[in-house]
């Protein structure tokens, strides 16, 4: 992992654990045992760092949805793959933890543009697959997207809480991830699909 990537990982976990507003550049530098000036060698500001974290996630999400869209499988299976990814919290997917905590902490306004980019990507996926959506729902794509996005975030936060670990730093984040890995995500995906998606799919 490069120094730049290390800064992004550490900052992401601290942003999620303590809030974006409450996390200072000094906090990030101290965890990394580097001088504050060392941070500025890589990023001009906390805002630039946050935007890069968000942009990286948008790119990854776009690539994933394109891959899913190109697969020769049913629309139902594609949706289940998307739900599975949104609930697959692992050590290398710390951005997912950040997005959930931004929602929980009421800090969405700080990243609104980047959130909209992510939601636009999913909206486009749904629009491209309108033929699989029941007629009465075809003009409700944005509403469907909002319901699914919010519901998945709430479910993810619920599952994180089930681990019983309060994340304050990277060590506790790893502990939470270890306990999260014992959860039956496939069961959660099936439940979510049956509750929120099955009724609108042809």
Automatic annotation (TrEMBL):
<dbReference type="InterPro" id="IPR050624">
    <property type="entry name" value="HTH-type_Tx_Regulator"/>
</dbReference>
<feature type="domain" description="HTH tetR-type">
    <location>
        <begin position="1"/>
        <end position="61"/>
    </location>
</feature>
<dbReference type="Pfam" id="PF00440">
    <property type="entry name" value="TetR_N"/>
</dbReference>
<feature type="transmembrane region" description="Helical">
    <location>
        <begin position="144"/>
        <end position="161"/>
    </location>
</feature>
<dbReference type="InterPro" id="IPR001647">
    <property type="entry name" value="HTH_TetR"/>
</dbReference>
<feature type="DNA-binding region" description="H-T-H motif">
    <location>
        <begin position="24"/>
        <end position="43"/>
    </location>
</feature>
<dbReference type="InterPro" id="IPR009057">
    <property type="entry name" value="Homeodomain-like_sf"/>
</dbReference>
<protein>
    <submittedName>
        <fullName>Helix-turn-helix domain-containing protein</fullName>
    </submittedName>
</protein>
<keyword id="KW-0238">DNA-binding</keyword>
<keyword id="KW-0472">Membrane</keyword>
<keyword id="KW-0812">Transmembrane</keyword>
<keyword id="KW-1133">Transmembrane helix</keyword>
């Amino acid at each position: 992992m490069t120094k730049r990537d290390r800064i992004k990982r550490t900052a992401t976990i601290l942003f999620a654990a303590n809030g974006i507003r409450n996390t200072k550049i000094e906090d990030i530098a101290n965890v990394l045992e580097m001088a504050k000036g060392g941070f500025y060698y890589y990023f001009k500001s906390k805002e630039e760092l946050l935007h890069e974290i968000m942009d990286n996630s948008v790119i990854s999400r776009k690539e994933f949805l394109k891959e899913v869209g190109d697969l020769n499988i049913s629309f139902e299976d594609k949706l289940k793959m998307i739900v599975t990814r949104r609930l697959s919290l692992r050590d290398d997917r710390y951005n997912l933890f950040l997005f959930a905590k931004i929602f929980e902490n009421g800090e969405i306004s700080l990243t609104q543009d980047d959130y909209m980019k992510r939601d636009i990507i999913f909206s486009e996926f749904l629009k491209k697959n309108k033929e699989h959506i029941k007629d009465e729902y075809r003009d409700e794509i944005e509403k469907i997207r909002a319901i699914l996005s919010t519901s998945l975030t709430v479910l993810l936060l619920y599952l994180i809480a089930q681990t019983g670990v309060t994340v304050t730093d990277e060590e506790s984040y790893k502990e939470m991830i270890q306990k999260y890995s014992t959860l039956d995500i496939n069961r959660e995906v099936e439940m979510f699909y049956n509750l929120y998606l099955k009724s609108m799919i042809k």
